[in-house]
Amino acid sequence: MVRGYKQIEKGVLSTMITVSSFSAAKARRATTVYSIALSHPKNVGVRGMVQCLMPTWGMVKGFKRGSISEAEYTARYGKLIVARWSEVKRWLDSLNGNEYLCCWCITGFCHRYLVAKLIRKYRSDLEVKLS
Ligand SMILES: [Zn+2]
Questions:
Q1: 40 lies in which domain range?
Q2: What is the average pLDDT across 51-57?
Q3: Across residues 80-86, what is the average pLDDT?
């Protein structure tokens, strides 16, 4: 399968998607950063915002406050993905394999985990590094 592979240097193919935090991407001087969060820091060069992967403010606030459990958050996020599926599918198909998909969270559960799972399921030709 050739689709999705991008030649970044002579003879070197990148097939690694990194799902991480803005601060980690900045530390690594990543140049292919895309935001999957509802906002992004101004000091990180963000190439684009992946709207179809963003949670809602209600989910984010509820989870931080503790009124929404990890299981509930996961269920609600799954529903969002289903509702946005045509966009999500188009985005999945467009992945080149050198993107950094970033959120503010540095550790702990958030939709980073669910996005990583989604890519592993639908783009098994790519490697996904979750941090
Ligand atoms: Zn997050």
A1: 5-130
A2: 98
A3: 98
Reported as a single tens digit per residue, the pLDDT across 20-36 is: 999 999 999 999 999 99
**Dist CA 98 CA 30 (whole Å):** 10
Query: b/e for 60-92, b at 16 or more Cβ within 10 A?
Result: bebbeeeebeeeebbebbeebbeeeeeebeebb
> Residue by residue, what is the 3-state secondary structure of 113-128?
HHHHHHHHHHCCCCEE
Residue of 53, 117, 116, 37 whose CA lies nearest to 89 = 53
**Cα 10 to ligand 1 centroid, rounded to whole Å:** 35
Domain count, the chain: 1
Note the pLDDT tens digit of each residue in 92-127.
Answer: 999 989 999 999 999 999 999 999 999 999 999 999
CA of 115 to the centre of ligand 1 (A): 10
Taking a 5 Å cut-off on Cβ, the residues next to ion ligand 1 are: 103, 105, 110
